[in-house]
Specification:
Blueprint: H1 22-34, H2 37-47, H3 51-59, H4 63-73, H5 83-91, H6 95-108, E1 109-111, E2 117-119, H7 126-148, H8 164-167, E3 172-176, E4 182-185, H9 191-194, E5 201-206, H10 212-224, E6 237-242, H11 252-259, H12 269-276, E7 283-288, H13 302-307, E8 316-322, E9 335-341, H14 344-356, H15 360-371, H16 374-379, H17 383-395, H18 405-421, H19 426-437, H20 440-451, E10 458-460, H21 461-468, H22 470-478, E11 482-488, E12 502-508, H23 511-528, H24 530-539, H25 546-555, H26 557-567, H27 573-583, H28 588-599, E13 602-606, H29 611-626, E14 633-637, E15 640-644, E16 649-652, E17 657-658, E18 666-675, H30 678-690, E19 696-703, H31 715-720, E20 723-725, E21 731-734, E22 739-742, H32 745-754, E23 756-759, H33 764-780, E24 787-790, E25 793-796, E26 803-805, E27 810-811, E28 819-823, H34 831-843, E29 849-853, H35 868-872, E30 876-879, E31 884-887, E32 892-895, H36 898-907, E33 909-912, H37 917-932, E34 940-943, E35 946-949, E36 956-958, E37 963-964, E38 972-976, H38 982-994, E39 1000-1004, H39 1020-1023, E40 1027-1030, E41 1035-1037, ...
Length: 1231
Amino acid sequence: MASNLRQPSAEPAEPRKQSNHPGFGRFKIELSAVLTIKIILELSVIFGYPNALLDELRNATDAALLMIMSMEERGQIDPTDISPLLTALTEMDRHGTARQVEGWFEQYVSIDEGKRAKVVEYQLSPELAEKKMASFISELKGTCHTLYDRIQPIPYIKEKMYSIDKVFIEVGIEYCDRQGSWKTLSSYHGIFSVAKGSSRIQIIEGDPGYGKSTLALQLVYDWCNDVSDSPYRRPDIMIFLNLRQLGGITSIDDAIEQFLLPRDSLFTRQDVEELINNRNINILLILDAYDEYPDQHIKDRFVRQILEGKILRHIDVLLTTRSSCIPPACGSQTGRIRLTGFDESAREQYVRKAVTGDDAEELQKILQQFNTNPILRDICQAPLFSVMYAHVAHEEEAFHNIRSVTEFFLYMIDCFHCHAQNKVSDEEKEQLQRYAANHQQLDAVAFDSLTGEKQQLVWDKDILIKKFGAEFYALHVNIGILVEEEVINRNRGASRPQPIKYQTEVRFFHKLFCEWYAAHHLAKRVTSFWSWFYDFCKNVNPYDLQFVYRFACGMKLKAAKEIIKLVQKKQDGDKFAVLCALEQKDSAGYVLSTVRDLVSRDVRISENDTKLLQRTTLQLLEFASQKEVPIKCLNLNRSFDSIDSRLAHITLKSGVGLRPIASLQLLILRMEATDVPEPELISILSYVGQCDNLGELRFEGCNLPVSVPAASIPSELISRNVKVVHPCGQYSLDLRMGQWGFNNKETIKMLCSKGITVRSDVPLIEQQALLLLTTNSTQDNRPVNCLRLDRCMDKVNQTDGKVTLESGLSLLPSSVLRKIEINKGGAEVTAEEMIGLLIYVSKSEKVEELVFNGCTLPTSLPADKINATLITRDVKVVDSRLGYRMNLILGQWEINDETTIRKLCLEGMTLCKDDPLIQQQAMLLFLTNSTQNNRPVYCLRLDRCADRVDTADGKVTLKTGLFLLPSSVLRKIEITGAEITEGDMIGLLTYVSKSEKLEKLVFVGCHLPLSVPAQFIPGDLTSRNVQVLRSCGKYYLDLTTGQWRINDETTIRKLRSVGITLCKDDPLIQQQAMLLLLTISTQNNILIFRVKLHELFSSVDSDGLSLVLHSGLCFPRLSSLKQLWISTAGGREVTVDEWTGILNYAKHSQLLRELRMESCLLPWLDNNPTNCGNTEVIWNPRADVGGYTLQPGRWQDGYGQVLTRTAYGDLVTRFRRQFSDSDWQRRARRE
């Protein structure tokens, strides 16, 4: 793809009369709609137009537009008067047309008495707006056609012009994704669809000559020609602005009017402003060559305001610039597109498409010139260089032995001058040769334009002629190094609009040519004015002027020395210094000195480096190796692609090859997120073996095999003791074993001292390194204090003690281990695995302790399976969590911690429902061991964990399935929260009987039977004075009768003198406890003075033996109850059935002397009971009303008055009125 090729402007026409009245412009658009060719020719005759103009109007493509221009130039229409036109239309008897034209003029422009025009507010009709848009687009496309239709690949070959589509070839394109990584883009069609973020701004960046402007012109071509498969045909309007031309332009509408609209445009600046601010129009704005924009540092310029999102936020923007000149105003979400230049395929496509056509022989001839010179091929990765060289090689004999960009450009400049000299006489040729050799003034102008405070890349023609001389100027214009352009002469100092005038501005064919001549000036001044150059470099970024520096280095050796010296001091200056050094070919000694300095630091070849830079860097390394200069480090930063296993040559992603380098000392391979297969790793090791002085190979950012076959590792690496470092940095390859191990001596020392921990969640390679450290320590006789296997052990062979991890790795016995810790995260260690571990310990002669953490261990081991050497060595086998140690003689567990032993014995042991199985097992083991060792245990608490009890032998089964056997050392048992049946109770009493020292059996929060058959209670419990208690000791079981007795005299006294109250809001457990107390009191004939049920009564049980409470519990018939008070919720009306049931309950309660009903309404019974035995029945319906006593057959108040039916009715009314807001009454009304 040709890059930044010449784009000539259209030939200038006569200046047009400028109309700044927006309404008049709209009038002209309407007028053009009625001017048919017949009307135009008739008007031309009336106005007396010359025959030449008549012929032009007759043959014009847009005769109406030409006619309007002609009338405006001759004063027949203007913003204040159109009467000549109206008169002519009347003379032609076109009265309707005249009225229509006059109406438009009055609609868009009104005339006051002073003949001054003013805009009339109006809104275009949809049809007129569409027509106006079409006219504007037509004018834009006409200008754009001149931009893309006259491309000059070689400026001095002026007879060959191309349309952009004839020379355009897609270059390599990459886009920046959301993670900041560069990814390949298959076509320029996807620029807006893949660019990062949702920003409307996309940046196309690239090095000089990489085709940024050419790509922008191709987008313009696609739009103008409505290319069917291109997404760039979709915008309604595409605006292409070359930023190089916009110095001093403050508004975009000004730029469009002056550079994109034709001189005879019907559109004013106000029209343009209205169109581009219309949010219903899809607009793509292309800002080309931001790096050449003179006003890029001025804040109030429209370009900066667009990039900052301050104006025109509704339009899409595509900006092209060099990679070193990204606008700071663009945010982080701005899309980034990068051009990477021509590859061989693109280069061949271009040569075939634009140079040779179907001439296969000529095509191969040109391609051969690229193929025989890799440096030339890499230089021509830049499309501009490739295009220029291809065309030159086609026209004349090309120079093949190009070794640097300086030589390439010198060759091109010579071609330009030689072409001009071939067309003149010998005398003129001498003059041209002098101009070609002496161009100091051009050098100075170019240098000042690039390095001044404000970059200036265009000049006035007259100024340059005055500075250079006419002949010098003409020569450089004729050969194409300088290019002339016709532009508007903008008088920015004028206070009022001025007539448009045009002037000729001059620029270089490409900015690289400007940099070429600026380099001559720099090379001269560097060698003459060192202090000036030092100050200059402090303020200039080398990458902004990289070709100026590189050209200067190639021109003069002395300049190269000074430039490279200062460039190396810049950040990332080494890469640039390499490019600068390889430009200088005149002094081998200096190059060697420079190379020696460069390779004394890290040399990096990155994925994003150009192919030229990569090949140049490798040439530098090969040169250093040939001269036996030590190369400190080569870092292949994501640039490694593959390696030839046969030749051991590395190939980079660019296709550049890297042979073994003898003097290289360190090689770093950074291969981001890449899996390196075993064969490739072996090939890399073979490559390292051929680098004679390489002492370290370091991998970064990749995944390596966990091991390498030891036989495949080259012996050279072992003899040289090459260090191969893993990407994580803490491992190096054990070249004897082919496994990864720790490479830091301090780390190894620390691990051996503090212990090695192998966890299941660490990478396989880390597990391998840790086990390798154990193996190596054994070989080196280096003590290892501890090896911890944290949830990574899979199985153990009980025959040979081989330990296999979940990762598949094996743990071999070690003679340097002191301690082994195993954690299985609560999982079971079987008896077979335990025996296998003891075999492993017996084979590891120095192991003193085997510790288990978080394991479910067997309760015992066969004593005959335990190796006798463990007993001799007094090896400790410990369950550290519970403090047990295995008795290796008996194969039984025993408590190992005296503090724990004392605490459990004195404070008791607890088994909870939620305890892990291993913890319950440990507690039961402790109880068994304590029984075996006759160690008293104060208490055993079973907290909601008991499941059932065997009535025959008293064996207690827990919910986990474990068993609790009788114990001769247990003093007390507490059972909490269990449902105890009569059978369970008998079994527990049997358990107590078999536990000879047990003194107390306590139930807390349990549901127990009301009694136990006395014949099933073991007789020895009475003789041992065993206490069976419930509810914190308030009740005890009479072991003679099997009945529960109250154990609290205070409670008995309270029951006899005061009684108890049960309330609706009492917790359920409290209600249960109180009912139990009442039941046991009745069973033991303890008098209960009074029970008051406060808002708790619900109903009467169907059998009439008990009252049902709101909590669902039953209030039983109590034979020892003296008074029962029932206080209902306010407004409660007792039904006939409920009242009958309550009276029946009272009648059959032998000792009940008083039944009191409060805060309720009892039903009227025609036949009230004549008596309730010895019970006095009292009714208090309301707090403010006296009570009633039930006499035989009737209610009577305290004054002896009998409650009549009428009085009862009044009582009901007052009762319901008083409690009308109560919940009970509201519910009754709803029902």
